[in-house]
Amino acid sequence: MKPIAFHAVGKSFGATHALCDFSLEIPGGAFCVLIGPSGCGKSTALRMINAMILPDQGRVTVGGEDVARLDPVEHRRHIGYVIQSVGLFPHWTVAQNIAAVPRLLGWSKPKQADRVEEMAGLLGIEPALLERYPHELSGGQQQRAGVARALAADPEIILMDEPFAALDPTSRATLQAELERIHARSGKTIVFVTHDMDEALRLATQMVVMDRGHLVQSGAPIEILRHPANSLVGAFLGGGSIHMRLLDRLAVRERSTPRRTGATGAIAAGASLRQALDLMLATGSTRLAVVDEDGTWRGEIHIGDIIAGGEAGTSDASA
Amino acid sequence: MTKVHDRVLVLLCCVGLVTTFFAPFLDQAPNRLASSTPLPLLNAPGFEAGAVILGLGLFMPIALLTSDRVRSLATIGASVLLLWACLAAAGHLAALRAPSGTPAMRLSLGPSFWSLAGIAVLALLDAAQRARLGLGARLGLVGLVVAGFILMARAGTFDSLSLTKEFLAHRAEFATELWRHLALVCAALLLAFVVGVPLVLAILRNDALRGVVLASLGIVQTIPSIALFGLLMVPLSSLASAVPVVKAIGVEGVGPAPAIIALALYSLFPLVRGFTVGLAEVPFAVKDAARGLGFDRRRMLLEIELPLALPALLSGLRVVTIQAIGLAAVAALIGAGGLGTFVFQGIGQYALDLVLLGAIPIVLLALAADLAFQLVIGVVRR
Ligand SMILES: Nc1ncnc2c1ncn2[C@@H]1O[C@H](COP(=O)(O)OP(=O)(O)OP(=O)(O)O)[C@@H](O)[C@H]1O
Ligand SMILES: [Mg+2]
């Protein structure tokens, strides 16, 4: 598991400062999500990791090695990359597209074929689609193929630039779940760019908020929600709905207390506070029993627990 | 209510009918220099003349057919009939008018023949395009038309036409010049390709150089062909006299060398531009993805850029081939030979049929090259 680090990186395109004094450490195995307004330098930062763009100032290191000193072609073959606009090869079938990097690495034909099959299974690409050409796929199928191509050679690091941008909410949620599963199982380092705050909060173990080429705040999503570094982050996190988002990230077990007041409904300890609130609104009760996965009683959660905790937790955001 | 679904067909039919009645189908003259008398189609034997009128007349009802495919297929049938009937009518009318023992008698194809044959070919090409015939069907169609022509020629149908007489008189030369013409074109294309491909690769990633190269090649394109052939004669002849090795490999101020170089120069612009545009049109996202996945420059070019630019390259090559086949006629002027020889001889001797003996094969070669490229591009595009 290779860590990635930016050391005071600067990059300009003519008069545009795409990145300014940008420093960031991404531990190996992290799911790092870069988020920020359009043009803030997310893609630029991402593309520095696989040497598509080299820094004007500072260094980018992968596993401790300066990216600028590595052979870029060889380096890229060991990093999965999903580009912002998919970019499947139009003259190759989906299977050939997925096998692109294994082929570059000189894998045997049967091994390539096995991997294509495995990737198709992993990303829910029907076998019938494998022999089609990219223009014969829907936008969502193309994005799945793009992700499969990036993962095919089993890279330790995966870079994804808005990979689910063109998807409907349902397919997006499915692919997010698949990606979470892949990350949890493989422990790969994933660097992921998105505009979508909910996507970022859901996937990230490390969230990086950027603005005009600067790193504004980096940390676990819940920490950023609790303590936004400044009003810009607060606004970007969703302004008015920041507390609701926080409820989304917190589990019922964190606020429940072992008391018995005769609550009617029941909710799992692992459910989010938002789900608890939703159930209260639906049933009209202000108290819920909290149960473990195996159904054993744990305590109760009252509407006051949810609200008081929320206020205390984010008091400095509204200041 | 009936509705015309193909106005072009109606127009072709009307033009054809007008020329049938108001223009000579053949021109008859007692010898090359004497003035000629016009022979209308209606002088031809009834069967052949009838077949011509029938083929042409069929265009009218066919134009009313609703289904695109049925209409195209019917048009193909009618045009083939028209073409064959024109050939047969011309041959048989000439035979009627040229009693044996009058070898100086000239029976040449007249405006009406040319327009009718032209109409048939136009309608045929257009319909073959619309019917979306497969590769096999297209080749079959060409084979059918050619087979009809060969059968008639074997049967001596065209023997009395003065064009045939010119052909028979120049038979040996014809074969030589035809091959020479093809050799000129092939050599020029090869040269253009060998020079053009590295040129394209050189200007591909260099915008400034691309502008300069394309502009200069574009200027060459505007030099009139005769002037360019002439312009090359001077430097080449001085080069040949100054460097014996150059002369030894056959390079001279006149002959094939300047012709091939001039033809190659004309071919370079469309070739280089078509190829550059094709490569430039490969989507940025595709190249970016390839680079990001670890394709090096060589594999990027061979596996991504070239395959995606191939249709554009072939289209460029097609334009260039057809252009070179036509332009090579001028090469005869500087002693390079080729089918142009007959054209210029004919002009000098005021023998129109000799001009045609050079011009018709040039047109047919160009059509054949076009067809061949369409087939290849079709295969590549899949
Ligand atoms: N190749 C380039 N040439 C010139 N300017 C560039 C180039 N790449 C990026 N920029 C500029 O650098 C800035 C940062 O671009 P970048 O693509 O990193 O933004 P981003 O955060 O990914 O935006 P988006 O969310 O819209 O994709 C922008 O102002 C952009 O216009
Ligand atoms: Mg971007």
What can you see in these coordinates?
The complex is a heterodimer of chains A (319) and B (382). Chain A is α/β, with parallel strands linked by helices and 319 residues long. Chain A folds into two domains: 240 residues, Rossmann fold; 59 residues, Roll (CBS-domain). Chain A is built from 13 helices and 13 strands. In chain A, the strands form three sheets. In chain A, strands 6-7-8-3-9-10 form a six-stranded mixed β-sheet, with helices on both faces. A four-stranded antiparallel β-sheet of chain A has the order 2-1-4-5, covered by helices on one side. In chain A, a hairpin with a 2-residue loop joins strand 1 and strand 2. In chain A, helix 5 packs across helix 6. The longest helix of chain A is centred in the middle third of the chain and has 18 residues. Chain A is globular. Chain A starts with a strand and ends in a 6-residue tail after the last helix. Chain B is an all-alpha fold and 382 residues long. Chain B has two domains: 159 residues, no CATH class; 211 residues, Orthogonal Bundle (MetI-like fold). Chain B is 76% helix and 3% strand. Chain B contains 15 helices and three strands. In chain B, strands 2-1-3 form a three-stranded antiparallel β-sheet. In chain B, strand 1 and strand 2 form a beta hairpin. In chain B, helix 1 packs antiparallel against helix 4 and helix 9 packs across helix 11. Chain B is flat and about 75 Å long. Chains A and B meet through helix 2, helix 4 and helix 6 of A and helix 12 and helix 13 of B. Bound molecules: adenosine-5'-triphosphate and magnesium ion (MG). The site of adenosine-5'-triphosphate has 11 residues of chain A, from strand 2 and helix 1.
